[in-house]
């Protein structure tokens, strides 16, 4: 009889422990789907990336650090310590981009460079600004910051205090609130 009472007490104890653990559930499992996915999934140090199309070089990129965020809602790549890049078009001298920071959102075709941005096109014209965006799909560049364009002739300078909208080679552009220096030929034609 004592053994039956003891067995019942043990079963009752186990039952109470079991019931108490079930009733004290942890709600943290409900938030698993809401966890932050915006973290670095891959880091590349002292990167030198060459991208080619068939036998032609398209991009020659150098960066001290590349960080990829492939699990973010919209995946992107950052160059937090700067970017130094040559880009090529068949039969033309390479263009060049240098900036202290860059961000690439490949799925949308949206690129950003900021802090000491220098962009040199294949004609050797130089654009300097603090921040610029490239819309890859429409092949356009944009900025709302002060933009300075120094033409290869060494004489022509364009300055825009409120940005630029341009083709990606900045040969056809619209400056906002601009000023500049243009060459002038003062010889009279007879």
UniProtKB/TrEMBL annotation:
GO molecular-function term, one example from the UniProt record:
lipopolysaccharide transmembrane transporter activity
Offer a single GO CC term for the protein: plasma membrane
Q: Does the keyword RNA-binding apply?
A: no
Q: Where is the signal peptide?
A: 1-25
Q: Which Gene3D superfamilies match?
A: Lipopolysaccharide (LPS) transport protein A like domain
Q: Which UniProt keywords apply?
A: Signal
UniProt KW Translocase keyword: no
InterPro entries to which the protein is assigned, alphabetical: LipoPS_assembly_LptC-rel, LptC
Q: What is this protein called?
A: LPS export ABC transporter periplasmic protein LptC
Q: Which organism is it from?
A: Apibacter adventoris
Q: Which gene encodes it?
A: lptC
